[in-house]
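Suppose a classmate hands you a notebook page containing two proteins, each written out with its sequence and a corresponding row of C-alpha coordinates. How would you begin to make sense of it? This section walks through that situation. The first entry is reproduced here exactly as it would appear on such a page.
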Amino acid sequence: MSNQHDSPRPLVTGPDDGPRPPYPLRLDGKVIKGFGRGSSELAIPTANIPLSGLSVGGHEDVESGVYYGWAGLSPSKATHQHPPQTQSFKYSHLSSPLQETLSSIATEGGASEKGAVHMNLSILGFIRPELDYVSKEKLIEDIKTDIEVSGRSLAREPYAKLRRDPYLLEFEGKGDEAT
Protein backbone atom coordinates (compact mmCIF):
# COMPACT_ATOMS: atom_id res chain seq x y z
CA MET A 1 0.00 0.00 0.00
CA SER A 2 1.09 3.57 -0.41
CA ASN A 3 0.54 6.64 1.67
CA GLN A 4 -1.37 8.46 -1.07
CA HIS A 5 -5.06 9.28 -0.69
CA ASP A 6 -7.15 9.53 -3.85
CA SER A 7 -9.53 12.08 -2.35
CA PRO A 8 -9.69 14.41 0.65
CA ARG A 9 -10.07 12.63 3.99
CA PRO A 10 -13.42 12.98 5.76
CA LEU A 11 -13.37 14.93 9.04
CA VAL A 12 -15.88 12.53 10.63
CA THR A 13 -16.58 8.85 10.07
CA GLY A 14 -19.45 6.53 10.99
CA PRO A 15 -23.22 7.11 10.91
CA ASP A 16 -24.41 10.23 12.76
CA ASP A 17 -27.00 8.20 14.70
CA GLY A 18 -24.37 5.90 16.26
CA PRO A 19 -22.36 2.78 15.45
CA ARG A 20 -23.90 -0.02 13.40
CA PRO A 21 -22.90 -3.71 13.38
CA PRO A 22 -20.31 -5.06 13.65
CA TYR A 23 -19.63 -2.16 16.06
CA PRO A 24 -19.05 -1.85 18.91
CA LEU A 25 -16.24 -4.37 18.94
CA ARG A 26 -14.97 -5.06 22.44
CA LEU A 27 -11.62 -6.27 23.60
CA ASP A 28 -9.53 -6.12 26.74
CA GLY A 29 -6.05 -6.88 27.96
CA LYS A 30 -3.13 -5.84 30.09
CA VAL A 31 -1.29 -2.73 28.92
CA ILE A 32 2.27 -3.69 27.96
CA LYS A 33 5.41 -1.72 27.21
CA GLY A 34 5.90 -1.05 23.52
CA PHE A 35 9.02 -0.07 21.61
CA GLY A 36 8.74 3.58 22.66
CA ARG A 37 8.56 4.85 19.08
CA GLY A 38 5.14 6.47 19.44
CA SER A 39 6.24 8.91 22.10
CA SER A 40 9.92 9.33 21.29
CA GLU A 41 10.05 9.27 17.48
CA LEU A 42 6.60 10.57 16.57
CA ALA A 43 5.77 12.66 19.68
CA ILE A 44 2.44 10.84 19.84
CA PRO A 45 1.77 8.84 23.05
CA THR A 46 0.49 5.30 22.65
CA ALA A 47 -0.60 2.31 24.73
CA ASN A 48 -0.21 -1.30 23.66
CA ILE A 49 -2.02 -4.55 24.33
CA PRO A 50 -0.83 -7.86 22.86
CA LEU A 51 -3.05 -8.76 19.90
CA SER A 52 -1.36 -11.80 18.34
CA GLY A 53 -3.88 -14.46 17.39
CA LEU A 54 -6.75 -12.31 18.60
CA SER A 55 -10.20 -12.12 17.11
CA VAL A 56 -11.72 -8.76 17.94
CA GLY A 57 -15.16 -9.07 19.49
CA GLY A 58 -15.56 -12.50 17.89
CA HIS A 59 -14.72 -11.11 14.44
CA GLU A 60 -11.67 -12.72 12.86
CA ASP A 61 -12.07 -10.78 9.61
CA VAL A 62 -11.36 -7.32 11.03
CA GLU A 63 -9.24 -5.35 8.57
CA SER A 64 -5.89 -4.06 9.75
CA GLY A 65 -6.17 -0.32 9.99
CA VAL A 66 -7.01 2.71 12.08
CA TYR A 67 -10.13 2.61 14.24
CA TYR A 68 -11.69 4.90 16.84
CA GLY A 69 -13.53 4.24 20.06
CA TRP A 70 -13.35 4.57 23.82
CA ALA A 71 -10.85 2.94 26.16
CA GLY A 72 -11.19 2.34 29.87
CA LEU A 73 -8.01 2.06 31.89
CA SER A 74 -8.09 0.36 35.25
CA PRO A 75 -7.31 2.94 37.91
CA SER A 76 -3.74 2.93 39.21
CA LYS A 77 -0.98 5.42 39.91
CA ALA A 78 0.22 4.94 36.33
CA THR A 79 -3.10 6.09 34.87
CA HIS A 80 -3.19 9.21 37.06
CA GLN A 81 0.17 10.74 36.08
CA HIS A 82 -1.41 13.37 33.81
CA PRO A 83 -5.18 13.29 34.15
CA PRO A 84 -6.94 15.10 31.28
CA GLN A 85 -8.49 17.73 33.55
CA THR A 86 -5.12 19.14 34.73
CA GLN A 87 -3.32 22.09 33.13
CA SER A 88 -0.22 19.95 32.53
CA PHE A 89 -2.17 17.76 30.12
CA LYS A 90 -2.43 19.24 26.64
CA TYR A 91 -2.83 17.07 23.59
CA SER A 92 -1.44 19.28 20.84
CA HIS A 93 -2.86 17.20 17.98
CA LEU A 94 -6.46 18.25 18.71
CA SER A 95 -8.02 21.64 18.25
CA SER A 96 -8.72 23.41 21.57
CA PRO A 97 -12.55 23.19 21.44
CA LEU A 98 -12.41 19.49 20.54
CA GLN A 99 -9.80 18.89 23.27
CA GLU A 100 -12.12 20.50 25.84
CA THR A 101 -15.17 18.53 24.66
CA LEU A 102 -13.40 15.17 24.77
CA SER A 103 -11.68 15.94 28.07
CA SER A 104 -15.05 16.72 29.62
CA ILE A 105 -16.57 13.48 28.27
CA ALA A 106 -13.57 11.36 29.33
CA THR A 107 -13.32 12.62 32.91
CA GLU A 108 -17.02 12.40 33.70
CA GLY A 109 -17.60 10.14 36.69
CA GLY A 110 -14.06 10.04 38.16
CA ALA A 111 -12.13 6.92 39.16
CA SER A 112 -10.67 5.20 42.20
CA GLU A 113 -7.09 4.10 42.83
CA LYS A 114 -6.80 0.29 42.52
CA GLY A 115 -5.58 -2.63 40.43
CA ALA A 116 -2.99 -3.27 37.72
CA VAL A 117 -3.11 -1.36 34.47
CA HIS A 118 -5.55 -3.12 32.16
CA MET A 119 -7.47 -1.70 29.23
CA ASN A 120 -10.98 -2.34 27.93
CA LEU A 121 -11.62 -1.11 24.41
CA SER A 122 -14.90 -0.41 22.69
CA ILE A 123 -14.13 0.08 19.01
CA LEU A 124 -16.89 2.15 17.44
CA GLY A 125 -15.77 2.69 13.87
CA PHE A 126 -13.19 2.46 11.10
CA ILE A 127 -11.14 5.42 9.88
CA ARG A 128 -8.85 4.04 7.19
CA PRO A 129 -6.80 1.00 6.16
CA GLU A 130 -3.23 0.55 7.34
CA LEU A 131 -0.81 2.17 4.92
CA ASP A 132 2.89 1.72 4.15
CA TYR A 133 4.56 5.11 4.56
CA VAL A 134 7.58 6.29 2.60
CA SER A 135 8.42 9.01 5.14
CA LYS A 136 8.01 9.65 8.84
CA GLU A 137 6.55 13.10 8.04
CA LYS A 138 3.70 11.62 5.96
CA LEU A 139 2.96 9.12 8.74
CA ILE A 140 2.82 11.90 11.33
CA GLU A 141 0.57 13.98 9.06
CA ASP A 142 -1.87 11.08 8.67
CA ILE A 143 -1.81 10.26 12.39
CA LYS A 144 -2.67 13.89 13.19
CA THR A 145 -5.60 13.66 10.77
CA ASP A 146 -6.64 10.32 12.34
CA ILE A 147 -6.63 11.98 15.78
CA GLU A 148 -8.83 14.82 14.56
CA VAL A 149 -11.23 12.41 12.79
CA SER A 150 -11.42 10.24 15.94
CA GLY A 151 -12.11 13.22 18.16
CA ARG A 152 -14.80 14.67 15.89
CA SER A 153 -16.42 11.26 15.45
CA LEU A 154 -16.48 10.55 19.21
CA ALA A 155 -17.74 14.03 20.12
CA ARG A 156 -21.13 13.33 18.47
CA GLU A 157 -23.78 12.58 21.12
CA PRO A 158 -24.56 8.95 20.13
CA TYR A 159 -20.83 8.14 20.37
CA ALA A 160 -20.09 10.37 23.38
CA LYS A 161 -22.70 8.61 25.51
CA LEU A 162 -20.96 5.26 24.86
CA ARG A 163 -18.06 6.55 26.98
CA ARG A 164 -20.25 5.63 29.96
CA ASP A 165 -20.61 1.98 28.84
CA PRO A 166 -20.13 -0.12 32.03
CA TYR A 167 -17.97 -2.54 30.02
CA LEU A 168 -15.21 0.06 29.87
CA LEU A 169 -14.85 0.16 33.66
CA GLU A 170 -15.25 -3.51 34.63
CA PHE A 171 -11.80 -4.96 35.38
CA GLU A 172 -12.47 -7.55 38.06
CA GLY A 173 -11.26 -10.99 37.00
CA LYS A 174 -9.37 -9.66 33.95
CA GLY A 175 -6.23 -11.60 33.12
CA ASP A 176 -3.03 -10.59 31.37
CA GLU A 177 -4.10 -12.00 28.00
CA ALA A 178 -6.06 -9.87 25.53
CA THR A 179 -9.48 -11.25 24.71
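The notebook's second entry, a different protein, reads as follows.
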Amino acid sequence: MLSARLPGLHLSSKTSRPVTIKQSVVICKASRDVASSNAKHQVMSTSAKLASATCGLALAASLCLPGVSMARPEGVNRPDLLPKEQTPVIDVAGFLTPSEEARIRAEIESLELDTGFKLRVLAQNYPETPGKAIADYWGVGDDTIVFVADPSFGDILNFNVGGLVDLEVPRRFWGALAGKYGNKFYWQEKGENESILNAVSAIDTCLREPQGRFKCTQVQGEFGEKDSKGPISDRIGKLFGN
Protein backbone atom coordinates (compact mmCIF):
# COMPACT_ATOMS: atom_id res chain seq x y z
CA MET A 1 0.00 0.00 0.00
CA LEU A 2 1.15 3.53 -0.69
CA SER A 3 0.22 6.76 0.99
CA ALA A 4 0.80 10.38 0.25
CA ARG A 5 1.29 13.83 1.65
CA LEU A 6 0.85 16.97 -0.38
CA PRO A 7 1.99 20.41 0.73
CA GLY A 8 -0.87 21.26 2.87
CA LEU A 9 -2.64 17.87 2.52
CA HIS A 10 -2.79 15.15 5.22
CA LEU A 11 -4.16 11.74 4.29
CA SER A 12 -5.66 9.53 6.92
CA SER A 13 -4.59 5.88 6.91
CA LYS A 14 -6.65 2.72 7.20
CA THR A 15 -5.23 -0.66 6.40
CA SER A 16 -7.26 -3.33 4.66
CA ARG A 17 -6.84 -6.10 2.12
CA PRO A 18 -4.92 -5.02 -0.98
CA VAL A 19 -7.90 -5.64 -3.23
CA THR A 20 -10.10 -3.19 -1.37
CA ILE A 21 -7.83 -0.39 -0.25
CA LYS A 22 -7.31 2.69 -2.37
CA GLN A 23 -3.69 3.29 -3.25
CA SER A 24 -1.91 6.58 -3.72
CA VAL A 25 1.59 7.84 -4.19
CA VAL A 26 2.99 11.29 -3.76
CA ILE A 27 5.84 12.50 -5.85
CA CYS A 28 7.75 14.83 -3.61
CA LYS A 29 8.71 18.32 -4.55
CA ALA A 30 11.65 18.68 -6.91
CA SER A 31 14.33 21.24 -6.21
CA ARG A 32 16.55 22.70 -8.86
CA ASP A 33 19.69 21.42 -7.14
CA VAL A 34 18.33 17.90 -6.78
CA ALA A 35 17.17 17.83 -10.40
CA SER A 36 20.51 19.08 -11.71
CA SER A 37 22.40 16.41 -9.81
CA ASN A 38 20.01 13.70 -11.04
CA ALA A 39 19.07 12.82 -7.49
CA LYS A 40 16.01 10.61 -7.16
CA HIS A 41 12.78 12.11 -5.88
CA GLN A 42 11.58 10.23 -2.87
CA VAL A 43 8.20 8.55 -2.66
CA MET A 44 6.32 8.32 0.62
CA SER A 45 5.31 4.74 1.26
CA THR A 46 2.81 3.50 3.87
CA SER A 47 -0.76 2.26 3.63
CA ALA A 48 -3.49 4.82 3.03
CA LYS A 49 -7.03 5.20 1.90
CA LEU A 50 -8.02 8.36 0.13
CA ALA A 51 -11.43 9.78 0.89
CA SER A 52 -11.47 8.44 4.42
CA ALA A 53 -14.76 9.22 6.09
CA THR A 54 -13.05 10.60 9.17
CA CYS A 55 -10.16 12.71 7.90
CA GLY A 56 -9.71 12.38 4.15
CA LEU A 57 -7.44 14.97 2.61
CA ALA A 58 -6.00 17.78 4.71
CA LEU A 59 -3.16 20.19 4.41
CA ALA A 60 0.48 19.70 5.42
CA ALA A 61 3.87 20.33 3.96
CA SER A 62 6.86 18.15 3.36
CA LEU A 63 9.69 18.71 0.93
CA CYS A 64 10.78 15.07 1.08
CA LEU A 65 14.35 15.84 0.14
CA PRO A 66 17.32 13.97 1.63
CA GLY A 67 18.58 15.67 4.75
CA VAL A 68 15.71 18.15 4.96
CA SER A 69 13.65 18.25 8.12
CA MET A 70 10.79 20.69 8.55
CA ALA A 71 7.77 21.30 10.70
CA ARG A 72 4.40 20.01 9.53
CA PRO A 73 1.81 22.80 9.26
CA GLU A 74 -1.58 22.41 10.86
CA GLY A 75 -4.28 20.69 8.83
CA VAL A 76 -7.02 22.80 7.28
CA ASN A 77 -10.69 22.06 6.68
CA ARG A 78 -12.40 24.96 4.92
CA PRO A 79 -15.44 23.73 2.96
CA ASP A 80 -16.51 27.38 2.71
CA LEU A 81 -13.73 27.86 0.15
CA LEU A 82 -15.20 25.21 -2.16
CA PRO A 83 -17.23 26.30 -5.20
CA LYS A 84 -20.99 25.81 -4.94
CA GLU A 85 -21.03 23.77 -8.13
CA GLN A 86 -18.82 20.81 -9.00
CA THR A 87 -15.67 21.73 -10.94
CA PRO A 88 -12.32 19.97 -11.56
CA VAL A 89 -10.41 23.23 -11.07
CA ILE A 90 -10.38 25.22 -7.81
CA ASP A 91 -8.29 28.39 -7.76
CA VAL A 92 -8.49 29.95 -4.32
CA ALA A 93 -5.15 31.71 -4.87
CA GLY A 94 -6.20 33.62 -7.99
CA PHE A 95 -3.33 32.35 -10.14
CA LEU A 96 -5.49 31.70 -13.22
CA THR A 97 -7.60 33.99 -15.39
CA PRO A 98 -11.20 32.90 -16.15
CA SER A 99 -10.17 31.89 -19.68
CA GLU A 100 -7.26 29.83 -18.36
CA GLU A 101 -9.56 28.06 -15.91
CA ALA A 102 -11.99 27.34 -18.73
CA ARG A 103 -9.20 25.93 -20.90
CA ILE A 104 -8.02 23.63 -18.12
CA ARG A 105 -11.57 22.45 -17.38
CA ALA A 106 -12.13 21.61 -21.05
CA GLU A 107 -8.86 19.67 -21.25
CA ILE A 108 -9.58 17.77 -18.02
CA GLU A 109 -13.12 16.87 -19.07
CA SER A 110 -11.94 15.60 -22.45
CA LEU A 111 -9.12 13.61 -20.82
CA GLU A 112 -11.54 11.94 -18.41
CA LEU A 113 -13.96 11.14 -21.22
CA ASP A 114 -11.23 9.63 -23.41
CA THR A 115 -9.12 7.81 -20.79
CA GLY A 116 -11.23 7.41 -17.64
CA PHE A 117 -8.59 9.14 -15.51
CA LYS A 118 -9.63 12.10 -13.35
CA LEU A 119 -7.30 15.06 -13.05
CA ARG A 120 -8.20 17.57 -10.33
CA VAL A 121 -6.39 20.89 -9.88
CA LEU A 122 -6.22 22.95 -6.68
CA ALA A 123 -4.35 26.27 -6.72
CA GLN A 124 -3.71 27.61 -3.24
CA ASN A 125 -1.49 29.58 -0.91
CA TYR A 126 -1.31 27.71 2.39
CA PRO A 127 -3.14 28.16 4.74
CA GLU A 128 -5.81 29.64 2.44
CA THR A 129 -7.12 26.31 1.14
CA PRO A 130 -10.21 24.11 1.47
CA GLY A 131 -7.82 21.43 2.79
CA LYS A 132 -9.30 18.05 3.58
CA ALA A 133 -12.73 19.19 2.39
CA ILE A 134 -11.68 18.48 -1.20
CA ALA A 135 -11.62 14.71 -0.62
CA ASP A 136 -15.39 14.36 -0.44
CA TYR A 137 -15.99 17.20 -2.87
CA TRP A 138 -13.98 15.49 -5.62
CA GLY A 139 -14.53 11.86 -4.61
CA VAL A 140 -10.80 11.12 -4.85
CA GLY A 141 -10.04 7.50 -5.78
CA ASP A 142 -7.64 5.14 -7.52
CA ASP A 143 -8.31 6.78 -10.90
CA THR A 144 -7.57 10.31 -9.64
CA ILE A 145 -4.61 12.65 -9.87
CA VAL A 146 -4.80 15.49 -7.36
CA PHE A 147 -2.56 18.31 -8.56
CA VAL A 148 -1.91 20.96 -5.91
CA ALA A 149 -0.22 24.16 -7.06
CA ASP A 150 1.16 25.91 -3.97
CA PRO A 151 4.29 28.11 -4.01
CA SER A 152 4.28 28.60 -0.23
CA PHE A 153 7.22 26.26 0.33
CA GLY A 154 9.36 27.13 -2.69
CA ASP A 155 8.49 24.75 -5.51
CA ILE A 156 4.93 24.82 -6.78
CA LEU A 157 3.91 21.45 -8.30
CA ASN A 158 2.71 18.61 -6.08
CA PHE A 159 0.88 15.44 -7.10
CA ASN A 160 -1.12 12.76 -5.34
CA VAL A 161 -1.52 9.80 -7.69
CA GLY A 162 -4.16 7.08 -7.33
CA GLY A 163 -3.25 3.41 -7.56
CA LEU A 164 -4.55 2.86 -11.10
CA VAL A 165 -2.71 5.92 -12.34
CA ASP A 166 0.44 4.69 -10.61
CA LEU A 167 0.23 1.49 -12.65
CA GLU A 168 -0.16 3.48 -15.85
CA VAL A 169 2.45 6.21 -15.40
CA PRO A 170 6.07 5.65 -14.30
CA ARG A 171 6.85 7.48 -11.08
CA ARG A 172 9.87 9.20 -12.59
CA PHE A 173 7.49 11.17 -14.82
CA TRP A 174 6.06 13.09 -11.86
CA GLY A 175 9.52 13.96 -10.58
CA ALA A 176 10.60 15.12 -14.03
CA LEU A 177 7.41 17.17 -14.40
CA ALA A 178 7.93 18.85 -11.02
CA GLY A 179 11.55 19.54 -11.89
CA LYS A 180 10.69 21.11 -15.26
CA TYR A 181 7.73 23.32 -14.40
CA GLY A 182 7.58 23.33 -10.61
CA ASN A 183 10.92 24.72 -9.53
CA LYS A 184 10.99 28.15 -7.91
CA PHE A 185 13.11 29.68 -10.66
CA TYR A 186 10.59 28.69 -13.33
CA TRP A 187 7.38 29.91 -11.73
CA GLN A 188 8.93 33.14 -10.44
CA GLU A 189 10.07 34.00 -13.97
CA LYS A 190 7.09 32.68 -15.96
CA GLY A 191 4.29 32.98 -13.41
CA GLU A 192 2.29 30.46 -11.40
CA ASN A 193 -0.27 30.24 -14.19
CA GLU A 194 2.33 29.06 -16.71
CA SER A 195 3.52 26.35 -14.36
CA ILE A 196 -0.05 25.11 -13.94
CA LEU A 197 -1.00 25.31 -17.62
CA ASN A 198 2.11 23.53 -18.84
CA ALA A 199 1.85 20.82 -16.17
CA VAL A 200 -1.79 20.09 -17.05
CA SER A 201 -0.94 19.85 -20.74
CA ALA A 202 2.01 17.54 -20.01
CA ILE A 203 -0.19 15.23 -17.91
CA ASP A 204 -2.80 15.19 -20.68
CA THR A 205 -0.17 14.22 -23.21
CA CYS A 206 1.32 11.52 -20.99
CA LEU A 207 -1.99 9.79 -20.25
CA ARG A 208 -2.94 9.74 -23.95
CA GLU A 209 0.28 8.11 -25.09
CA PRO A 210 0.06 4.47 -26.23
CA GLN A 211 1.09 1.68 -23.88
CA GLY A 212 4.72 0.64 -24.00
CA ARG A 213 8.06 1.19 -22.35
CA PHE A 214 8.35 4.69 -23.81
CA LYS A 215 5.04 5.90 -22.37
CA CYS A 216 5.52 9.11 -20.37
CA THR A 217 9.30 8.96 -20.65
CA GLN A 218 9.45 12.63 -21.64
CA VAL A 219 7.75 15.72 -20.27
CA GLN A 220 6.01 17.75 -22.94
CA GLY A 221 7.53 21.14 -23.66
CA GLU A 222 5.88 24.49 -23.06
CA PHE A 223 2.92 25.66 -25.12
CA GLY A 224 4.28 26.43 -28.58
CA GLU A 225 7.47 24.46 -27.91
CA LYS A 226 5.97 21.08 -28.72
CA ASP A 227 2.41 20.18 -29.62
CA SER A 228 0.52 17.94 -27.24
CA LYS A 229 -0.22 14.44 -28.47
CA GLY A 230 -3.65 14.83 -26.90
CA PRO A 231 -6.04 15.93 -29.68
CA ILE A 232 -7.98 18.10 -27.25
CA SER A 233 -4.98 20.41 -26.82
CA ASP A 234 -5.09 21.54 -30.45
CA ARG A 235 -8.83 22.20 -30.28
CA ILE A 236 -8.52 24.07 -27.00
CA GLY A 237 -5.63 26.13 -28.33
CA LYS A 238 -7.71 27.25 -31.28
CA LEU A 239 -10.73 27.90 -29.10
CA PHE A 240 -8.82 30.22 -26.76
CA GLY A 241 -6.63 31.79 -29.39
CA ASN A 242 -3.38 29.97 -28.59
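A careful reader of the second entry would note: The beta strands are 24-27, 89-91, 118-123, 144-149, 157-162.
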